[in-house]
Amino acid sequence: MTVAVDRPGRRRLARSLLDAGALRPEWEATFTTVDRAMFLPDVMWPWDMMSRASNRVDKATDADTWHAAADADQPIVTQWDDGRHTRPGPGTTATSSSSMPSVVYRLLGDLDVDEGMRVLDNGTGTGETAGALTHRCGSGKVTTIEVDAEASQQAAQRLNAAGLHPTVVVGDGTAGDSAHGPYDRILVTYGLREVPGALVEQTRPGGLIVAPWGTHYSNADAVVHLTVQKAAASGRFTSGVEFMKSRSQRRMAISPSDYVPSEGVRGADTSRTSVTEEQFAGGRFGVLPFVLGLRVRDCTQAVADKRDGARPVWFYGLSDRSWACVLFQDDRAEARVWQSGPRRLWDEVEAAYHWWTAQASPGFDRFGLTVTPDGQQVWLDEPANSWPA
What we know:
By secondary structure, the protein is an alpha+beta fold. Helix content is 24%, strand content 30%. It is built from ten helices and 20 strands.
């Protein structure tokens, strides 16, 4: 049996999440009982949202710091490089984590579950979300699937220790788990670039899929709420998020040398733009990077650090070797642009920016997604105003 947790840091976190509206009252008993700390490994890497860095914390040598991190509203990396990482410091790519409690409980609130509903938790991770759903929906109602066998085994052990017993499955979440469906709700806890048809097929008519979704343009995703009707699903986006991406849908790493010749930007077409860095940035979780990804297909951006008042932003085509670079400088009213290849990527990006402003700079909630057997369509305001995703 699980018991309520009465730890000062945990109580403070609960109050802050309730005050912010991230933790809804109907989930408060679950939050109090399903303790995040029970699902974390002894060695972990809390992620500093400001510095964009992780520092190793070992419960055996610094229990106070470990518990403080567990009770903070911050993401915690629990695995690097698909489990191949063995060094004390951070690895190259974070591949499993415990998400920010505010994000977790907003997703759970968005899922709109009731006791007795059958739920698929897609992306077990540490097992905390599966535990929360099991506490709320009841034993035998929750299936959780994880592609990483070791992570799945560790999560199952922690869930059992907590007295929570969802059905734990090892497998590729893009295929779902038809054996325990159909589901009233499906929650995806990693970033999607395409909503798998199997998830739509395994959701009962009128059921709901909640998932982070975005494009390869950037890491700016948004949570989409898809209501399923027959073989299709459609719904609106809500808040911006940033999740680790589905292993089966990851973008291949970009090598700039495959695009930009050894002589650099010399020889590329040059121009200038009046779009400023402030206008273009849109914030880390701002809507603009998300919208640019919707409007400029098969493109990814790389934002470099600012040095001496100058910041270059690069763009690379994903279907050819087109590239572009815009150099924002603090002391210049206009930015210089270089472009090369079959496409003029900056021209496309700039056109997308002006399209967005012409629509009164819509937020996430004016955009939506429709998924059918024929593909994905994104739309503004209503499905009739759609284009291919």
